[in-house]
Structures are given as structure tokens and as C-alpha cells.
């Protein structure tokens, strides 16, 4: 979970986090594939530990292995179901929300590709590189947390987390209308309205709006860490965390931007590895804790844009919450 080069830090998944053990082992549980029975949006009360608890193995249902094998007969060729080599991990990570994850995968590889939100070459690897890769970050998010996903694009990782973790309250922040339209449609189609809100706007412009004060801010492939910290740290509460999903050069990025992050009130970035033992390579996350709220002059001098929101103005039509 923690790269030894960077140490465990004080802010890793604690007792309140579901942790890696929350990933359901692929044992005796039903898997609802579309075309058979679609899984209903799960209904455990948001915030209840049960919402993120491992699926009960006592269902008397077929094993995952046989369910996967049965499902093979019904698999479509649109790429929405996971390839065999990752099917068990996907079933394990999404648990009883697996059917919903398949539904989301289908949206991505059909509408998402047609509408230019997902490259056609991503479709065959949508599970490995996108859904599972994002879902494993769930192990760093405490039960019942409020999460803001900055630069959601087609919903990565925000919608994936909402699918995997119905206990979370998630706000998707995305400036582009075409993308927020897709996000809103996906949220409705997947029945995620109770827990997911779509906000159109730039992160730096919505800082005084509903997303602010989050327990966790996530971002994947949005900006270098210094700029990201400038946008995201103001959206988290003090002691809240930025989880920046990064690639292979995460360690170098952490070293390069640590001073800029500190000037923004953030902790030393700590490199975390999520999904070790499940996926190879695991997902690399830079974790930054909000230590202090910088004075406005410090924030304005930071690498983020000097925004209308910081000046007390909001760009027309921006930063307004849109339910589903
Ligand atoms: C490369 S895409 C990544 C999308 C998604 N996170 C993923 O991993 O597939 C970057 C996204 O960040 C959004 N973005 C860029 N600047 C932003 C800002 N200041 N605030 C919020 N989102 C931003 C873009 O509109 C785009 O959807």
C-alpha cells in the first residue's frame, strides 16, 4: 500500500477506512450481468459501515467462478464486460455492484466513444486501465466520506467510486458542457442520483460552492501536482486529503512540487500504491493532507488561476450544482 521510499505518513487509511480488505474476495456471490438480471443500485444507508462491507458469502449463490463462466454465454462483444484475465478482480473490487459497473462500462465503450469522451483504443482495456484502476483507490477513502472528483471527464474516477461505494457522497466537477452532459446522463442511467452531484465549472471557480469542505478530493490526469494542489486543496476541509492518481513519474512529481504544495498548506506528498496484489501495476496515488488554510495572499500567489471565485465573483452559469 505504501511505497517504502516515502514512508507510511500519518494520514494513510486508518481504522475508519474500509482498507484493502474491503475488496470482496471472489467467492460465493451472485453476479448480475446485464442481459440477465441487472443489479439494482445498492441501497445501504450512506455512511453505514454495511455500505462498504464485503459482500456476504452466505448467499447460497453460485461461486464467482461459475457465475463468470455462466455469464460467458451471455457476454456481449461490445467490450462492456471484463476480459477473462481481470474478471475475478473486477468482481472482487465491485462486489455486489458489479452489474452496475458493467452497465457503466457499456456507457463508456458505446456512448462515451461515440461522443469522443473515450478514445476508441481505450475500449478494449476499459476495465484494466480505467474501471479497476480507479476502483482500487476506494481503499484510501473512509466510510461515509464526502468526495469531490475534480476534472471527472467521463467519470473517472468519480463515477467508478460511486458505483463501487454507495456510502460515499460524491461531487463531480467538470468544466466542459459536453462532458457534464454525459456525466449527468450516466448518473441518471445508473441510478446514482442519491449520492452523486454533477457541478459544471473549474475547480478553482467552485471553491466557494457546494463541493467545498470535502473529506477527500480526487483527480486523475488533470494537471501537474502544483497546479492540482492549488485547485483542489481549497475544496477539502482542514485534515481532508487530495488523492491525485498519477502515472509512473509520480515520485519525481512529488519531489518537484513539494515546496509549492507546502506553500498551499498541504503536507509532504506521500506516494501510495492501491490494489497491490490485485492489479499489476497497482494504481499510484499522491496523497496530500490539508494542514492549514493558507492566507488569501498566499493562495493567490500559488500556481492556480487567480479566479473570479477567489475575488468573490462567480462566472455566470458556472459552479452551479446540477443534480444527476
Ligand atoms: C485528461 S482529462 C481526464 C479526465 C478523467 N479524470 C480521466 O481520468 O479520464 C482532464 C479533465 O480535466 C478537466 N479540467 C481541466 N482543467 C480543469 C479545472 N481547472 N477544473 C476542473 N476540471 C478541469 C478537463 O475538462 C478534462 O475533462
UniProtKB/TrEMBL annotation:
Residues 1-81, 295-324 are annotated as: Disordered. The keyword Cell membrane does not apply. Residues 48-67 have a biased composition (Low complexity). S-adenosyl-L-methionine binds at residues 151, 156, 203-204, 220. This is Ribosomal RNA small subunit methyltransferase G. Pfam families: GidB. Specifically methylates the N7 position of a guanine in 16S rRNA. It comes from Paractinoplanes lichenicola. It comes from the Bacteria. Residues 311-324 have a biased composition (Basic residues). It is an enzyme of class 2 (transferase). Keywords: Cytoplasm, Methyltransferase, rRNA processing, S-adenosyl-L-methionine, Transferase. Its EC number is 2.1.1.-. PANTHER family: S-ADENOSYL-L-METHIONINE-DEPENDENT METHYLTRANSFERASES SUPERFAMILY PROTEIN (PTHR31760). It is found in: Cytoplasm. Belongs to the methyltransferase superfamily. RNA methyltransferase RsmG family. InterPro entries: rRNA_ssu_MeTfrase_G, SAM-dependent_MTases_sf.
